[in-house]
Design a protein that fits this description.
With 253 residues, this protein is mainly alpha-helical. The chain has a domain of 127 residues: Orthogonal Bundle (DNA polymerase, domain 1), CATH 1.10.150. It is 49% helix and 11% strand. Helix 2 crosses helix 3, helix 6 crosses helix 7 and helix 7 packs across helix 8.
Amino acid sequence: MNKPSALPEFQRYQLAFTAHIRDPQAHPRPAGVEARRMKIYNELLYNNVEGFLLACFPVLRQVLGARKWAKLVRAFFSTHRSHTPYFRQIPDEFVQFLQNEWTPPEGYPPFTLALAHYEWIELVLSVSNRSLERAVDATGDLLDGVPLLNPVLANLRYDWPVQRIAPRRKILPAETYLLVFRDQDDQVQFSEINAFTARLLTLLEPAMLTGLAALETIAAESRHPDPALVVQAGGTLLDDLRARGAILGACGT
């Protein structure tokens, strides 16, 4: 990359202009630009970005409060370099920023990233265009056949009960498993699940194992004294997941 001093004058001006928009406190206003006009640019661009974030992360905004939220959005706006031109993907970039670039300052809750990811996943699934690439038998046998998961599904694990986080509510860390999927009415459904269900979904996700094989694997991993009981309980669970729309059926011919 060329050094700023080696760039043409108009490019140096552009860099100074955008640097000031990103962080007016750290970069002076370019010479020759009226302060009132520059303020309009600053507020317009920042407010646009914040607006897209507010639409996706309302709980995070409430939990952090106005001051901490504004500092976080400014840090994202001033330092992150997005890899997409699409406004609707700004929340994706924000989560990447939190995961890879942001070091939480003192006073920010330790669950900030987890809560942001939890709120973000609803947007991801609501706009997903993933579909099954295999034939599915909606009434097929889920034990002897290969269960096919809803392609618009997330099997999540957090160190915090993110679904219970709210302003002024004390939250303690706790291993939490959540199943999130888009149902046939295009509504995103959230439900808390246990480690058994999470492991079963992980085994079924590649669509390589029969339901019976997946349940026998879990029984062996857990060294359960009665594997038949695991299979019986798991069969009931498979039927329930199908009824709710998390499993669409068994692999068809």
